[in-house]
Design brief:
This protein is mainly α. The chain has one domain. Helix content is 80%, strand content 0%. α1 packs antiparallel against α2. This is Spo0E family sporulation regulatory protein-aspartic acid phosphatase. InterPro entries: HLH_DNA-bd_sf (IPR036638), Spo0E-like (IPR018540), Spo0E-like_sf (IPR037208). One of its GO terms (molecular function) is protein dimerization activity.
């Protein structure tokens, strides 16, 4: 699984790509919708990493 920092960078890059595609094509273009799904999956991965760290016991 990726580190939280790596995921944050990927999230930022993909978020910017989504904004760029939306500006170029509009909200309903297939490339914008696909990029939105990619970003959704990265957000889910980030939350899994974040919440996994919260559940670790403190030793």
């Amino acid at each position: 699984m990726e580190s939280e920092e790596t995921l944050q960078q990927r999230l930022e890059n993909n978020r910017q790509r989504l904004y760029d595609l939306q500006a170029k094509y509009g909200l309903s273009h297939i490339d914008v919708l696909r990029q939105s799904m990619v970003l959704d999956e990265l957000i889910n991965q980030y939350h899994r990493v974040y919440y996994a760290q919260l559940k670790k016991p403190i030793a």
